[in-house]
Amino acid sequence: MDEHPSYEGAVGALGASSDANRTRYLWRFVYKPLALAVLATFFAFSSAYFVVDATLAQFDVGWQQPVLGVINSAVSVVMWRLAAVGLSTYRLATSVHKTVSTGYL
Questions:
Q1: Of 13, 52, 74, 90, whose CB is crowded by the most CB atoms within 10 A?
Q2: Is residue 96 a contact partner of residue 11, using CB atoms and an 8 Å limit?
Q3: From CA 19, how far away is CA 22, in angstroms rounded?
C-alpha cells in the first residue's frame, strides 16, 4: 500500500504521535471495522436462521420469530453500513500501523 497517495503522510503523522495515540489508531482503524464486520455477519446469519427455522416449521411460528428476524436483519444492515467506512480504508490503516510499529519501510 506504499503507493497510496496518503500513505507517506499517514506514516509520518502516526510515527510522530505518542504510543497512546498509536493504540487509539489501532483500535479505531484496524480492530473496530473487523469487529463490526463480525457482528454484522453474526446478525445476518441469525436472521437467516429464523427464516430457515420458520420454513422447516412450515411457517407455524409465533409473532416473535418474524419480529426477531426483521430486527436482526436491520441490525445487520446498520452494522455493515457502519463497518463500510472503516473497511474501505482498512488495508491502508493496517499497512500504516505495521510500518510504524515494526519499522518496516
A1: 90
A2: yes
A3: 5
* pLDDT, position 2: 72
Cell of 52: 430457515
Can you tell me the mean pLDDT for 30-47? 95
SS (H, E, C) the chain: CCCCCCHHHHHHHHHHCCHHHHHHHHHHHHHHHHHHHHHHHHHHHHHHHHHHHHHHCCCCCCCHHHHHHHHHHHHHHHHHHHHHHHHHCHHHHHHHHHHHHHCCC
